[in-house]
Amino acid sequence: MKITVLGCGALGQLWLSALYQQGHDVQGWIRIPQPFCAVNVISPEGVAFNRNMPTNDPEHLAQSELLLVTLKAWQVSSAVSALMPMLNDNCTILLLHNGMGTVDELPANRLAILQGATTHAARHEGNAIMHVASGMTHIGPVTPRGAAHSALADTLHHALPDVAWHDNIRPSLWNKLAVNCVINPLTALHECTNGDLIAFPDQIEQICLEVAQVMAIEGYEIHSESLLSFVYQVIDTTAANHSSMLQDIRHQRHTEIDYITGYVLRRGRKHGLSLPVNTRIFEQIKRKENDYERISS
Ligand code: KPL
Fold this sequence. Notes:
The protein has about 300 residues and is α/β, with parallel strands linked by helices. About 45% of the residues lie in helices and about 20% in strands. The chain has helices at about 10-20, 60-65, 75-85, 100-105, 150-160, 170-190, 200-215, 225-235, 245-250, 260-270, 275-295, and strands at about 1-5, 25-30, 35-40, 50-55, 65-70, 90-95, 110-120, 120-125, 130-135, 135-140, 165. The strands form 2 sheets. A 7-stranded mixed beta sheet has the order 2-1-5-6-7-10-11, with helices on both faces. It has a 4-stranded mixed beta sheet with strand order 4-3-9-8. Strand 3 and strand 4 form a beta hairpin. Helix 6 runs antiparallel to helix 7 (about 200-215), helix 6 packs across helix 9 and helix 6 packs across helix 11 (about 275-295). Bound molecules: ketopantoate. The site of ketopantoate has 11 residues, from helix 6.
């Protein structure tokens, strides 16, 4: 399959290496064009993949059957909108990022768009990407034309298992969103690992209750206790992780808060819900972000 991977960070390199090793014709796409990008991934078993992969070939992009988007949520709409006119009608776009709401920011288009949520954990260590833990990727359509693309789950599963297809992906996206609403801002505010969050059960419960309220009013069958136990399960399985938001704050990068807690607040506001706990957390993260973004601008 001819594939372009947009974004060559940790998750992008993971997919580039996995798809290449599965025999796909794959290139990367990066913001500042270069003839190639160095892909250097160490598997959970310690096996290294090290190779220069081609990047930013417009002909390859025009013929791609899949555009796999591994950017941060806030980078998605401008980067994907810029590439859309160059894609062929049969190209499927798969968005893999934390949070929700990016698909609503894309211009009206003719393309099949899928979104996914993944639990693979990968992080930069020096020049290498450590694939710290294998995980599960759930994908499914977020535009009507996406519904016909379930076979893609098999293709991706062979490259980087496990991948599961969902005709209705939204419940999985909301469950992951709830996890990110708890773990990401709390680890950034308390400056702790995911596992250390068990010291803050009240905050965890209050965040979950509010997210469950929004989910229920949006029409998802949800019990706040099962959401809470799902969140604790992820806290447990990722206990040693430094969440992506904690890393973003530590490196003074823009965070994904607008698409995580911010998305829940926007949906809640639409239904007239006030969500005081998530509102306060959103403002605390924004304040941290604004502090360093103001200094650097
Ligand atoms: O998605 C994550 C992130 O850090 O962004 C979790 C699931 C919280 C794992 O750290």
